[in-house]
Amino acid sequence: MEGDSDRVGMILVMGVTGVGKSFFINKLAEGTVIEGEKLRSETQRPQIVTAVLGDDSGFDTEVAIVDTPGFDDTYRSDEDILAELSEFLSAQYVWGEFDLKGIIYLHRITDPRMTGSAYRYFQMFQRLCGEHTFKNIVLVTTMWDQLTNRMVGVARDQELRNDFWSMMEEQGSQITQFDGSHDQAESIVLQLLGKQPITLQLQHELVDRGLPLDQTSAGQPLAASLEARLREATIDTERLNDSTAEGRTQQG
Ligand SMILES: Nc1nc2c(ncn2[C@@H]2O[C@H](COP(=O)(O)OP(=O)(O)O)[C@@H](O)[C@H]2O)c(=O)[nH]1
Ligand SMILES: [Mg+2]
Fold it and tell me: Does residue 239 form part of some domain?
């Protein structure tokens, strides 16, 4: 069909550390990413995994799934994570070989309440995507099999829908409970692959409008700390220059 591209679709998997992003991706492409990687999350970068879906039907669909680093309280700052994501998303937008089709946002149903970092991440996530992409987003609750009482999960699910997810749902986001199966992971991804490609708000702002990260919708709330981060980087460079100069003086 005219206008439809032959490019492989890309899906981002997002959510704070430990919600099951890597687990979800391994359901689609077994053993491609490391699960439970908390201790090494400081070195984690967005990682693209390609998978082929729908073997049985005879229609194979290739997809690029991205495992993204999420906020966590211990190992990396929110600014680091946003900077990491923004680099990846800009590069994909400018040079990428894939069409971004959607985002899968994971939330652990075993969490009694939304923690500070989970809430900050969720807000950053919404700003980074922009409302125009909400119809390409599936909000997924994970780890239902870890609950001792399913009714507790059902109540939390309702709370999430009422207090946090209703605005996105009204604007077209889907909400679903993940049972941990390959089949469901595949059907969530296939559903998103059928949609029109999107450009995220952050990609528009960074690439099309040339804004610095701290002036983007996602970056603004972190502006003070992003600035401090930049200042630190500048001071580091100055120190490096100083010591190089010193070195030369001593040598010369
Ligand atoms: N029982 C169960 N364990 C899960 C599920 N999702 C993730 N896990 C486990 O929870 C831990 C954290 O998941 P992981 O995928 O590494 O989270 P990530 O930080 O979001 O990538 C790992 O040990 C996973 O194997 C699930 O739906 N059910
Ligand atoms: Mg992971």
Answer: no
